[in-house]
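Can't paste images in this forum, so I'm doing it all in text. The chain is below; anyone willing to post the predicted structure tokens underneath?
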Amino acid sequence: MAQGKHFITKSVPSASDSSPAFAFEPAAPAPKAEKPKKIYKNKKRGEKKLSLTVKLLIGLLVVTFLLCLTVLILWLRGRHAMTETHVAPHFPEVTSEEAAETDVPVAAVTDDDDGTVISYKGKYYRYNEDVTNILLIGVDSDSTEVGKESQQSDLIVLAALDRAKNKITLLNIPRDAMCDMEILSDDGTYEGTAYAQIALSYAYGRNPEECAELCKNAVSAVFCGLPIRGYGAFYMDGIPALNDALGGVTVTILDDYPFKDMPAGKEMKLNGEQARRYMKSRLTDRVDASLLRLSRQKQYLLALINQAKATLRAEPSKIVPLYRSLETYISTDLSIGSISYLGSVAVMMDFSGDVTTLEGEMILSEDGRHAEYILDEGALYDTMLSVFYTEIER
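Text version of the structure:
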């Protein structure tokens, strides 16, 4: 190598060398541009407002769902209570040959899969389990407090709701109908039975519930042990409230009682107090006075039913508020669920527009002091088989 000459040697990096060939300092990254704060604020405000709205909507939906579910559960419980199978009326058990020779319905024992059926006048019937029976009682009292004044069941109507035929039948038992009824002592123990006017059955109880139960048992006995699912006893003080809650009830005044402000033959929309007197007043010097009043009671009841059905068809939800407004005048063993179910079913059923009064004869008691209505046994059986049974082929 020649003296005095210098060589600069460049180092060439290998492929495995991770260090850069030239040591340049990297440039600092450019700062990110911030979005205008106004945009973020608007977005956050929108999110808060939407979130609150959604929460309120969800809350309302949950509450509505729970309310609907509660109503549905009550309705289903009511339906179960009103439709569960009960024991049919009881008639004497005899053979088919014996049944053909009798004049009363009898339980004919058969040898096939039909089971026990009722034989009457050469025809056969089976009890209709699709009928729900509810007893309606009009109490001749202005107070629900037993003992404060005399209490009797002046209006007794059995409502038969036939779900299979989709119809309602109303049967009236005259207050003076003679029947066997339970007698209780002052402490509520059973003492036996008495043969008297069915209106008196309500008088032997110590409280409204016991009074109504005794009346229900008496009505069931009249119909040979017919199952009655529930009762509703309505006190006279409630008539004005019910009448006015429906906007008044229109009737054509009958002529059996001299009302000063309700001329006979005039069509009138009665106010509450007029309705009360129209339902309650009767003459005292005629043996058939209760039957004459019964015509007015039936007339008013039918007009009230038609108006109530029209109201509930237009607004079915009114059934519970209407009941609540009259609750203080009613004694019943029906639950809100049962009332709701019965109301929803009954309002859609066909109704003949009449109340069938059990046939019989009104006579004066042996002492000449009381009216007695003797039921026609044959007509009673015909009514029972027509309303509560279904004819079958044999």
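The longest helix spans residues 37-83. The CA atoms of residues 133 and 228 lie 5 Å apart.
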